[in-house]
């Protein structure tokens, strides 16, 4: 997957900009996301299960580093609790992806010389492949047509291209017809006209000008792709066999030397799939922490200062600070290595419930019958807007005055009203009014443009 024709300097600059901006910039962005999600998950875990000193430090102070990944891997088997182990395992995998991101993005991009097809002719010269054209007919007395025609004049057609017809792509020569009609009228060049004139002559008088006494005369396919077995080089009187053309053809660098920049399709495909799995996993980890953490709902979010303070409190509860004032870091590590941190003490005297618990309590007191009665007018409005949305695609009269492309907006606004709930009455009308006004602005533009 390559594009462009660049000089070496421009291609190299593209590669460097990609590595720095997308590779390193993307890694920095993912590191910010992972820190927020991992610390929320850590808080959620510490509400139920203690974690080691190294695990806490690796996630809060050494996130997305080789040292932090080493500490997490080392403590993985010592982690207790099924949920804590799953969260730890995913944290390790997600961290590996973030650390490998710049290398992966750099490996799947690069620049390559822009090569062009050439054909080795009979005397050893490399001829650009574009100088050859399929030869359909040979007019042996072509000089009779005028001074610009040779005795053995080759009737050639342009090279194959592609275009879109309805919803299908098809290949064709520029002189291709569709059911005996000049379908590609914009491409009827002089070469194409000559092809049809010779074809008509052959149909009427036979090949080599002999009288045609057959009741039917079958011409080659109007799409000469499968009939042309010879190629004619422009500016010469030489015809080449198609098999020889393919055998002696090769790709070489042109002059001046240019480069293409692009992606490895295989690595790009694998990266997109891996990134999708990573995104789903990170969202699930975030959703679990958001819904079931009691400290998260109380706005006790994690950061560098919060982590340092909690880590200090844990260390001070384990060792006598005054006795280790002159000790080195290695001695301190041996003292705190088996220290565990937990937030269970923060929840002993609190009545804060998690969002999941609040949702469960709300659902227990929810009555569908009561809700349908209270929201009957909004539900009828949504059904009416949805009906107009469906009819705008099928009924021409409604299509004139109710734009199909934006007719979903009023119903979408009512859906927001139902999701917001009765307690936020002002927000309900603001959301509905926004989508309703936006629809009518788009709809008026539709009506005016449709009328003209």
UniProtKB/TrEMBL annotation:
Keywords on record: Membrane, Transmembrane, Transmembrane helix
Ranges annotated as spanning the membrane: 86-105, 261-286, 377-395, 401-419, 431-449
Protein name, entry field: Uncharacterized protein
Organism (species): Lithohypha guttulata
């Amino acid at each position: 997957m390559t594009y462009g024709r660049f000089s070496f300097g421009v291609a190299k600059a593209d590669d460097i900009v990609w590595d720095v901006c997308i590779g390193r910039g993307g890694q920095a962005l993912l590191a910010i996301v992972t820190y927020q999600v991992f610390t929320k998950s850590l808080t959620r875990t510490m509400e139920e299960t203690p974690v080691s000193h190294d695990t806490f430090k690796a996630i809060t102070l050494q996130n997305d580093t080789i040292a932090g990944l080493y500490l997490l891997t080392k403590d993985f088997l010592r982690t207790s609790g099924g949920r804590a182990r799953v969260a730890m395992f995913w944290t390790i995998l997600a961290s590996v992806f973030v650390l490998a991101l710049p290398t992966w993005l750099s490996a799947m991009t690069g620049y390559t010389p822009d090569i062009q097809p050439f054909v080795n002719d009979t005397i050893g010269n490399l001829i650009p492949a574009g100088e050859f054209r399929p030869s359909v007919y040979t007019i042996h007395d072509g000089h009779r047509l005028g001074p610009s025609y040779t005795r053995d004049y080759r009737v050639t057609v342009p090279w194959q291209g592609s275009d879109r017809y309805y919803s299908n792509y098809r290949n064709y020569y520029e002189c291709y017809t569709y059911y005996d009609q000049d379908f590609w009228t914009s491409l009827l060049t002089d070469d194409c006209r000559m092809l049809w004139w010779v074809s008509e002559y052959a149909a009427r008088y036979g090949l080599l000008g002999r009288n045609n006494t057959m009741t039917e005369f079958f011409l080659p396919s109007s799409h000469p792709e499968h009939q042309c077995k010879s190629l004619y080089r422009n500016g010469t009187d030489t015809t080449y066999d198609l098999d020889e053309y393919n055998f002696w053809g090769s790709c070489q660098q042109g002059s001046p030397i240019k480069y293409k920049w692009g992606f490895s399709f295989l690595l790009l495909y694998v990266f997109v799939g891996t990134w999708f799995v990573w995104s789903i996993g990170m969202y699930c980890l975030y959703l679990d922490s958001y819904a079931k953490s009691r400290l998260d709902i109380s706005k006790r979010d994690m950061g560098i200062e919060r982590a340092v303070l909690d880590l200090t409190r844990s260390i001070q509860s384990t060792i006598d600070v005054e006795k280790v004032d002159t000790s080195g870091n290695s001695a301190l590590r041996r003292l705190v290595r088996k220290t565990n941190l937990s937030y269970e003490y923060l929840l002993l005297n609190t009545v804060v419930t998690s969002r999941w618990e609040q949702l469960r309590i709300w659902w227990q007191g929810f009555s569908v019958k009561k809700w349908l009665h209270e929201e009957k007018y909004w539900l009828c409005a949504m059904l009416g807007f949805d009906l107009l949305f469906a009819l705008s695609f099928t009924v021409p009269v409604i299509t004139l005055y109710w734009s199909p492309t934006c007719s979903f907006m009023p119903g979408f606004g009512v859906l927001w009203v139902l999701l917001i709930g009765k307690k936020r009455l002002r927000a309900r009308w603001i959301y509905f009014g926004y989508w309703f006004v936006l629809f009518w602005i788009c709809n008026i533009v539709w009506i005016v443009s449709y009328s003209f």
